[in-house]
Amino acid sequence: MNLPELFAERAGDYRAGMHHCTAAELPTVLAGLLAGASRVVLPAGIAEPWLTGLTVATLPDGTPPLTAADLDEAGLSVLTGCAVAIAETGTIVLDAGPGQGRRLLTLVPDHHVCVVRDEQIVADVPDMIAALPEPTRPLTMISGPSATSDIELNRVEGVHGPRRLDIVCVHP
Questions:
Q1: Mind listing the pLDDT tens digit of every residue in the chain (172 residues)?
Q2: Distances 141 to 57, 63, 77, 96, 147 between C-alpha atoms, Å
Q3: Is 93 exposed, middle or buried (0-12, 13-18, 19+ CB in 10 A)?
Q4: Which residue spans traverse the membrane (predicted)?
Q5: Residue-range definition of the domain harbouring residue 79
């Protein structure tokens, strides 16, 4: 199994929505995933071609940045890229670089859509550290939507983060 396939399988195990497309198909896939949002928050550095076809209002996380209350609005989604993704664990890694935004941006809204290019997927954690452009930046590692279990092992999603995580894997 190659790295993109392993990543998709593992991320799917964590109940992330997995979507596959080419770069040419990406705007259409994103438009479909975000069609039900009231608004979509965009961090600085999002690639403009990604936004072609979006029919919902976009909200840049500008100056001043959106507050936690702003980001907790019902129906709000966030669209980001990632720094790297780990195949072995199905984890996306954000380092607040261009197109990723700050931590609050990806941990508060109910729906997070993250774009991962095949060349960003590495095998394991040591490879992830080596692949980071600036390894001293604070990292946010996300493996599926927010989830917790009570003492009876009943799974509850979205208690302390997005209830829904959609990952779009972009293949050449």
A1: 899 999 999 999 989 999 999 999 999 999 999 999 999 999 999 988 999 988 898 899 887 889 999 998 889 999 999 999 999 999 999 999 999 999 999 989 999 999 999 999 999 999 999 999 888 999 999 987 766 666 776 766 656 668 899 999 999 9
A2: 28, 25, 18, 11, 14
A3: buried
A4: none
A5: 3-171
- Strands 111-117, 76-80: parallel, antiparallel or unpaired by DSSP? parallel
On whether the CB atoms of residues 17 and 165 are closer than 8 A, the answer is yes
CA atoms of 69 and 60, how far apart (whole Å): 15
Q: What's the CATH code of the domain at 53? A: 3.40.50.10420
Say how many domains are in the chain: 1
Give the number of other CB atoms < 10 A from CB of residue 50: 22
Contact 57, 39 (CB under 8 A): yes
